[in-house]
Amino acid sequence: MKKKLSIILTFLVIITISSSYISVAKTSLNYNENIFISLQDPPMPVRQPAEFEPMQGVLIRYPFGISYSIIAEMSEDVEVVTIVASSSEQSFVYNQYQSNGVNLDNCIFLIASSDSYWTRDYGPWFIFNGDDEQGIVDFTYNRPRPNDNLIPSKFGLEYSIPVYAMNIEHTGGNYMTDGQGISISTDLVWSENPGYTHSEIDQIMLDYCGIDTYHVVPDPNGEYIQHVDCWGKFLSPDTILIREVPSTHSQYDEIESTVDYFESQTNCYGTPYDIVRIYTPNNEPYSNSLILNNKVLVPITGSSWDDEAIDTYESAMPGYEVLGFTGSWQSTDALHCRAKGIVDREMLYIEHIPLLDQQYSSDGYEVNVKIFPYSGESLVNSDTKLYWKVENGSWNSEALNSLGNDDYSAVIPDVGGDVDVYYYIHANDYSNREENHPYIGELDPHVFSIIGGNQNNPPDKPEKPDGPTSGSPGSTYIYSTKTTDPNDDRVYYMWDWGDGTFSNWIGPFDSDNIASTNYNWTEEGTFMIRVKAKDTYGAESDWSDPLEVSMPKLKNQYPIFFNLLDRYFPYFSKIIKMIL
Questions:
Q1: Residue 33: helix, strand or coil by DSSP?
Q2: Which of 33, 85, 273, 288 is the most exposed place for a label (fewest CB within 10 A)?
Q3: H-helix or E-strand containing 71?
Q4: Element (H, E) at 87
């Protein structure tokens, strides 16, 4: 019976869309006159990307629920797709964008009827299906807003993206996913779908969204809207942000119970979640933020807690640019509700389970990763690498070797024992997409500890450089130093020439052996040169004591000659001194 109902509803949607007028002005989209709403489940396996994955655009609606300053910020980096009711409304909005500093090169218009600006709630859910193609999952919007309910199918038509009709009532504000098959909603999804058992809802989410773990929890806010984005947010696959209130708050117990629940769950990596708390004593909507590639747009209210909220995001998401924006925000309706990220349909996808703490191994530590370019372009092998370092060391890189079927592997070499190792994966393809895992890369890498084994110690401070202490600009001089490595590792040297110039890492040299290099200064002056060392595992020494080197002008090096010149040939002496 449910299957028949689904088919009937799908045909009604097709008929309705066929009679609707939609068009796109100024666009690079591939227009397709044939509506494609699949009557089948999407090909398996399905993966539903997370909000913190690469976005090519953002979907908003006019009249707006956000300020032009927010739209201008979005347009700096991604396409802003604006739903407008008519071509005349499009012209008006275009002029408003032009007057308010919006990047018009990144503006696209979807002409379609709509009922509200809550694009998060009714906008398309993006997936990648088993054929490695982007698709849209369309659900029944849980509000009596029929025009809003049709937007996902109209969007799919304009973008030539297949739309899969999921026969379930839902809303985007009550849904967040980690991109790895785990999602969270409040139990509103159960109460709004009384015709299904909980296990049947789980199966639908698996079939259409690839969700194999669906956390359905009571709404801790006790609000009428019961949306998860009013109190929580995935910041990464292993990190969840949850609001915090004082113990006197009416929902304190419920919110702490939710925290306890997620602290007892394991993330997609098989480890406990990192729970980040953001203080909202007066129900500030700080969790209702929008992650848009490497930026986090946070709704602020003018509260004394705004700065602390920004600090919380910056601490939890190092490397991201965190920006606060005021608006007509409410505790149950803010920035996240009013904008919907559009997933990059040709994203460069990196999948990896981070290494946990490891017992010492002289064979090193294998890192396995899956890299898939949805653009269809090949990877740039020379720029697809594993980067690693030990604590306080410099970054090293290892080539990722193809194992076939989009699988790659590299080995972090023996770095000694009882040390922390930091690493991230970087990939580049010929569509000019570059991605990291973790997403922000070097500024927030994975980290694991090596337990046991021989501890790797940095080289001793190098000896004070040995070489000439004076000379002439333009001439080349040789300097040397040496150091001892406690583990007898080979070492590299970096020279600071005192004029703002540093050498590359030179070497490697055997421990306790003299290492020499040369340099010429192009200007006169006095320079304090020094040198530091690092071993082959990246552990660095302190800087050496400095050597003072003087490069005086020629007239200061030969005073007798210039005194005679001044006495007997003053005219020529004056000219030579001017030249020098």
A1: coil
A2: 33
A3: helix 68-75
A4: helix 87-99
pLDDT tens digits, one per residue of 343-359 = 999 999 999 999 999 99
CATH numbers and ranges of domains, the chain:
2-343 (3.75.10.10), 348-451 (2.60.40.10), 463-533+544-580 (2.60.40.10)
Partnered with residue 295 across adjacent β-strands are: 292, 321
Burial 217-248 (b: 16+ CB within 10 A, else e): eebbbeeebbbbbbbbbbbbbbbbbbbbbeee
Neighbours of 30 (CB within 10 A): 9
pTM of the shown model: 0.78
Token pair listed for 484: 């001892």
Q: What is the DSSP string of 420-474?
A: EEEEEEEEEBTTS-EEEESTTGGGS-EEEEEESSPBP-PPPPPPPPBS-SB--TT
**Looking only at Cα atoms, what is the longest distance across the chain?**
116
Confidence (pLDDT) at 9: 46
Active site annotation includes 337: yes
**Mean pLDDT calculated for residue range 273-278:** 98
End-to-end CA distance of the chain: 97
Distance, in Å, from the CA atom of 111 to the CA atom of 58, rounded to the nearest integer, reads 16
The percent of residues in the chain predicted with pLDDT above 90, rounded, is 82
Q: Please say if the pLDDT value at position 14 is more than 70.
A: no
Beta strands in 172-311 (DSSP E): 176-177, 182-186, 213-217, 232-236, 239-244, 274-279, 290-292, 295-299
The one catalytic residue among 107, 209, 230, 337:
337
